[in-house]
Design goal:
Blueprint: E1 6-7, H1 15-26, E2 31-33, H2 41-51, E3 59-64, H3 66-70, H4 74-85, E4 90-95, H5 103-115, E5 119-125, H6 129-136, E6 145-149, H7 157-166, E7 169-173, H8 185-194, H9 198-208, E8 212-213, H10 220-227, H11 236-243
Bound molecules: NADP nicotinamide-adenine-dinucleotide phosphate.
């Protein structure tokens, strides 16, 4: 799984999604993170086909939405996602949120699709430790990835530690705090020291912490900028400075208490 990819939450189906995914692939991105919820799988699929990059070099993630878990229509939802994307397999399929009383059943469907080779890797999203433990008590195949809200104000140290021990790869959503982290004075100061942008410092902090990261942008210049993080390294001291910013602060919903 690539360490770095493009997120496409709130990217409009049509030109916006088509152009941003194509710009990303042109800039060297090989991983794209979408979801049934985002309603842009068709444009993501079109961008993949028009990119000129062979399918097998790309890593495509999509997710099953909560309503399909509640309606017991996970298999149908997977088929629809695949059809919209125009693919015959996805690289990673995630349980989007831990819908209580449903996620274990959902997982059984993902295991079946995984065993049939229609999904290369299966994982979860927004799972806390207790939800992972509960799921693993019935799982035949362990979740391979847990994609969670993660940025310097919500660094998730316990969850990261737990996942590392379990061999579950952590992936950050909202790595830039949905843009809210970009004015942070401590990170700004670090950025000027390395002559990089604030976004680049945060994304580099992800990489050095072995966190898979998928920043979203629809602007080509930012898409290029965000990926340009492989030729500098933050010092241990600066990593610590960013680690110290953690406030366990969520911008999104709490996985123990969501209403959608
Ligand atoms: N599993 C889940 O429940 C879940 C939830 C949320 C998100 N996600 C995934 O995670 C991805 C990333 O999270 P996110 O989209 O919520 O937030 P994000 O990547 O933290 O931030 C995106 C915001 O930052 C701006 N931005 C990006 N690069 C920038 C730069 N270099 N300079 C200044 N501004 C910049 C973007 O604006 P412009 O587009 O205008 O550049 C956008 O407003 C999503 O797209 C989605 O794939 C998953």
């Amino acid at each position: 799984m690539p360490w770095f990819g493009l997120g496409v939450y709130k990217v409009q189906e049509g030109e916006e999604a088509l152009q941003s995914v194509k710009a990303a692939i042109k800039a060297g991105y090989r991983s794209i993170d979408t979801a049934a919820l985002y309603q842009n799988e068709e444009s993501v699929g079109q961008a993949i086909r028009e990119s000129g990059v062979p399918r097998e070099e790309l890593f495509i993630t999509t997710k099953v939405w909560n309503t399909d878990q509640r309606n017991d229509s996970v298999l149908e939802a997977f088929e629809i996602s695949l059809k919209k994307l125009g693919l015959d397999y996805v690289d990673l399929y995630l349980v989007h949120w831990p819908v209580k009383e449903k996620y274990k059943q959902t997982w059984k469907v993902l295991e079946k699709l995984y065993k049939e080779g229609r999904i290369r890797a299966i994982g979860v999203s927004n799972f806390k430790i207790h939800q992972l433990e509960d799921l693993m008590s019935v799982a035949e195949v362990k979740p391979m990835v847990n994609q969670v809200e993660l940025h310097p104000l919500l660094a998730q140290p316990e969850l990261r530690n737990y996942c590392k021990k379990q061999g579950i790869q952590i992936e950050a959503w909202a790595p830039l705090g949905q843009g809210r982290m970009l004015e942070h004075p401590v990170i700004n100061e670090i950025a000027s020291k390395y002559n990089t942008s604030t976004a680049q410092v945060i994304l580099r902090w992800d990489l050095q912490n072995e966190i898979v990261t998928i920043p979203k942008s629809v602007k080509e210049s930012r898409i290029i900028e965000n990926a340009d993080i492989f030729d500098f390294a933050l010092s241990a001291e600066d990593i610590e400075k960013i680690n110290a910013l953690n406030e366990n602060k969520r911008f999104g919903a709490d996985p123990d208490n969501f209403t959608f």
